[in-house]
Amino acid sequence: MSLEILFVGVSDAWPKAGEETACFLVNRQILVDTGWNSAINMLSYDVSPTDVDHVFCTHCHEDHVLGLPGLLLANRKRAAVRSGAPPLKLYGPRDIAAVCQAASAMLQADRLPSRLPEHEVQYVAPGDSVTIGDITVNVGRAFHPVDARCYRFEDSASGASAVITGDTAYHEGVTAFAKGCDVLIHDASARGDATPEDVQVTLHSRPQDAARVAMEAGCSSLALVHYDSSLSRETLADAKKVFPNSRLAKKGQRLQILGPGQAVWV
Q: Number of H helices and number of E strands within the chain?
């Protein structure tokens, strides 16, 4: 086994034409955040929304959960499409239950219950872990204006590991959480020329902040996400000054982590 990550979207909170905000599919069955419209975007990569069994929400700002009603609706017939499919499981911070209830209300599930799949909602706190086959998902805290999580995926069979930070400003807790991971997938929403005071308002990371985490954590490589595509060149250059093994993740790319330090981009 190995870890495979499909970058369903990599854009900032306001995606341009043809883009999708940051959301990721791990081993075809674990979705991290739902973007604006992850259910439809997954179809472009030969992945059905009914393939997803687990959804991990980093936090409940709108650009990370707008796609939840669509994902739920697309799974309304999951039991018919996949005989014996388990209930869809959703994990996240303290707002996750309220957001799921709002998505259900948008679909008018009280009047039309067939629009919702069987699903379960679970709050996860920093320090928790969830086991999904050979994969352990460890839960960490991100530094953002709302209750937020970062997730570390570890494959026990291959030893591969990846950390997805969600939205976060730099802080030592993220560095400790990402210690020694093969690939760090890190927020780079703030402009490289943003002042520390600007960063403290939005609690996002500049590219050089993401690179600092990768360097201090001893990560093998850094993939920048949630960035403004119009500033791609500057974003990558700012990161590489601090951590040379940085790259911009692109929508539709697949990352295979075959084992410790063995990352292959497709």
A: 9, 15
Q: Is 247 exposed, middle or buried (0-12, 13-18, 19+ CB in 10 A)?
A: middle
Q: Tokens 């499909």, residue? A: 6
Q: Which domain holds residue 107?
A: 3-265
pTM over 0.70: yes
Q: Is 132 helix (H, G, I), strand (E, B) or coil?
A: strand
Radius of gyration of the chain from its Cα atoms, rounded to whole angstroms: 17
Does residue 225 contact residue 10 with C-beta atoms inside 8 Å? Answer: yes
Token pair 């970062």: residue: 150
Closest CA to 123 of 170, 89, 157, 159: 89
**Residues 155, 161: contact at Cβ < 8 Å?**
yes
User: Comparing C-alpha atoms, which of 145, 182, 138 is closest to residue 161?
Assistant: 182
Q: Reading across the β-sheet that carries 246-248, which strands appear in turn?
A: 129-132, 135-141, 149-155, 161-164, 183-187, 221-225, 246-248
CA gap 226, 205 in Å, rounded:
10
* Residue 195 backbone phi and psi in degrees, to 5: -80, 160
Which CATH number is 81's domain given? 3.60.15.10
Residues in the chain where the model's pLDDT stays below 50: none
In sequence order, the 6+-apart residues with CB closer than 8 A to the CB of 65 are 33, 34, 57, 99, 103
Amino acid at 198: D
Number of domains comprising the chain? 1
Distance between CA atoms of residues 54 and 36, nearest Å: 18
